[in-house]
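can u do me a favor
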């Protein structure tokens, strides 16, 4: 009886090992599902699926927030599919800011590699945590919490950012309120802001209503 149990156990281990998949490079030719992208056929996977070269180049900060985020999420970096991680580069020109925003799908860790950045987040208990980060400093931003980054010096600041998801998601508070067609009256009632201020912000951020 024992030899039979041992044989079945070894058979189970071998079949489990054979069915293990070490990676699941995203097949970007197919639409994503709630569980992520389907896997590319391992026979056509190459080393380039596991290499991303975009983080070495500065982003274009000539925009209203004077900031640029270069993502290395699953859509740009298929090798991270299913691994629960991704990266990004943040460039903040002088006066640059990433407004209050959330990542509904990931925790975030930010490391300053150039310049200085004021960064912080607000907990669900409305406790505020912020600090001026210098080169080499790292800060964490828990999943789903509102947080921000602001250039703290007169030169471009740069940070590398890591996420605990291959697709962390993003919602910027200012654009969620003032960059769409949500009626001014409803925004005013739900935020206590003056309608004139709301209309002004809508005109700047592309909203209507």
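np, heres the sequence
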């Amino acid at each position: 009886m024992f030899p039979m149990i041992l044989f079945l156990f070894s058979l189970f281990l071998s079949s489990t090992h054979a069915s293990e998949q070490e990676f699941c490079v995203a097949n970007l030719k197919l639409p994503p599902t709630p569980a992520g992208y389907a896997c590319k056929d391992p026979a056509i996977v190459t080393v380039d699926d596991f290499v991303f070269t975009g983080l070495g180049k500065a982003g274009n900060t000539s925009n209203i927030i004077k900031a640029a985020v270069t993502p290395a999420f699953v859509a740009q970096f298929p090798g991270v599919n299913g691994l629960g991680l991704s990266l990004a580069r943040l460039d903040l020109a002088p006066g640059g800011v990433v407004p209050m925003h959330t990542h509904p799908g990931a925790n975030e860790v930010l490391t300053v590699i150039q310049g200085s950045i004021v960064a912080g987040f607000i907990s669900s208990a409305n406790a505020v945590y912020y600090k001026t980060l210098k080169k080499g400093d790292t800060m964490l931003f828990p999943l789903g919490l509102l947080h921000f980054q602001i250039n703290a010096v007169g030169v471009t600041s740069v940070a590398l950012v890591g996420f605990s998801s291959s697709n962390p998601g993003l919602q910027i508070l200012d654009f969620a309120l003032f960059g769409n067609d949500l009626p001014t009256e409803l925004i005013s009632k739900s935020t206590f802001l003056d309608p004139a201020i709301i209309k002004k912000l809508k005109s700047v951020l592309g909203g209507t209503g």
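The CA atoms of residues 48 and 96 lie 33 Å apart. hope that helps!!
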